[in-house]
Amino acid sequence: MTKVSDVYKYIDSFAPFRTQDSWDNSGLLAGDENAQVHKALVALDAENRIIDEAHREGCELLITHHPVIFHPLKTVCFDDPAGRLVRYGMSCICAHTNLDSAQYGISDMMLYRLGFKNCHELVQINRRDSLSDRAVGYGAIGECSEMTPEELAKLCAERFRCVAIKYVAGKRNIKRVGVISGAGGDGIFDAKRLGLDAYITAEVKHHEFLEAERIGVTLIDAGHYETEIIAAEYLKQKLEKEFSDVSFVTSGEGTTIKTVK
């Protein structure tokens, strides 16, 4: 019978928790590592409505990308996510920056969703996975058939199911693209240094758009939720192949953030 610790160890095998950023809080953040798992819900966030959904589904385990506990807690109440997990006796594993920077991590999933090829890492950060001696980095670079900035923006809107999208067009058509899931607007400077035609990320600041326009690189803000929700389906597919005795489901709640066009 599969235990919470078995799921944790498997995630650790392809997205080592030791590689998470120093400010992050990935890992088994609630529950019992020895608890048996028959059903697990996979989601982007561990919000109350997601935890309630997992409880309704009869799940013993919730697996999310964003940590349920990020800052030190002074109280634990049943109306808060951490307290809700305690109330339901549910375990929670969170794989955040360790999954972002993993080989075949979320940025690679973005390129796969876009149909691009010849992928490699975009940003190398100054640390290594000491056990595998692999450089740990964020983002990925892919190649595509030549297209205009507007065509790439429309492709992103379609493949990431964006209600709306923001972008600035560069000075040339696009063949080589960099991506970083989630908030990565400052990666525009790496995109310029690496000679990329376009850069796709989320939570882009006003001055980052202006900088992209100045240096002639197409910059697309495809949304934090939209660029990272793909991680839930990716994790579900990997986990259900590894644990045949566990039913893995993705959250059907979606995002509560609304966009008016």
Automatic annotation (TrEMBL):
It comes from the Bacteria. A divalent metal cation binds at H65, H66, D100, H224, E228. It comes from Candidatus Faeciplasma gallinarum. The lineage of its organism: Bacteria, Bacillati, Bacillota, Clostridia, Eubacteriales. Gene3D superfamilies: NIF3 (NGG1p interacting factor 3)-like. The keyword Iron does not apply. This is GTP cyclohydrolase 1 type 2 homolog. NCBIfam families: YbgI_SA1388. Signal peptide: none annotated. Belongs to the GTP cyclohydrolase I type 2/NIF3 family. InterPro entries: DUF34/NIF3, DUF34/NIF3_sf. Pfam families: DUF34_NIF3. GO terms for cellular component: cytoplasm. Keywords: Metal-binding. The keyword DNA-binding does not apply. GO terms for molecular function: metal ion binding.
